Amino acid sequence: MKKIFSILAVIAFCQLASAQTNWEWDARDSTKLTQDEIYAKAKLFIAETWNKPSEVIINDDKESGLILLRGIHVEEMFYQMNNHRWTFGYQIKFQMRDYQWRLVIEDISCTAAGVGVNVWPKLPMDGYPEEKGLRKTSMKEDRYLEIMSNLKSNIQAIADRYQASMKAEPVNDDW
Are 113 and 41 a contacting pair, CB within 8 Å? Predict the structure, then answer.
């Protein structure tokens, strides 16, 4: 009986932990780099992370220390013999000044959903609807939680990679 209770408690905790309701990341840190050096690293990070940086950058103001971009992330899941796709949009602000940087990821929303030519309802970002959830999302709760968990992992990976790139010392090759 204790074993069953423990398993149910772990499952409940995992579902609560993966149900993201605050879809905003805000990371900041101090550094030894000047604003120009942080800007150059941020531009390099953007170029290495997105295939077409010029298409995702909305605002690039070196003097004020702000780069604003709008990105997308696509989640795909194969079930019911079809490949289902959900497209999520997000906004990232890279802010910088001498010896400080900040990364804000916000405004995450489902912008499209469907399979083939069929359009599904856009997924809510505030959790699986308790009432008529299958009708409002076109999927069961476990699939919804899997998609949201994958999305959260992807966005967190962007933040983690940026933080790591800001901490990395420049390579002095003298080539």
Answer: no
Q: d(Cα 139, Cα 156) in Å, to the nearest integer? A: 24
| DSSP three-state, residue 76 | strand
DSSP 8-state class, residue 117: T
CB 52 within 8 A of CB 72: no
Nearest-angstrom CA–CA distance, 108 and 5: 36
Residues 86 and 143: beta-carbon distance below 8 Å: no
Position 80: which residue type?
Q
Tell me the per-residue pLDDT of 84-134, one tens digit each, with 9 for 90 and over.
Answer: 999 999 999 999 999 999 999 999 999 999 988 889 889 999 899 988 888
pTM above 0.70, yes or no: yes
- pLDDT for 39-60, tens place per residue? 999 999 999 999 999 999 999 9
> Contacts by 76-81 with C-beta closer than 8 Å and gap 24+?
77/143, 77/146, 77/147, 79/143
Backbone angles phi, psi at 96, to 5 degrees: -155, 150
Neighbouring residues of 150: CB distance < 8 A, sequence distance ≥ 6 = 75
Q: Read off the DSSP letter of residue 80.
A: T
Q: Which of 42, 90, 46, 92 is nearest to 65 (CA)?
A: 42
Q: Which amino acid is at 112?
A: A
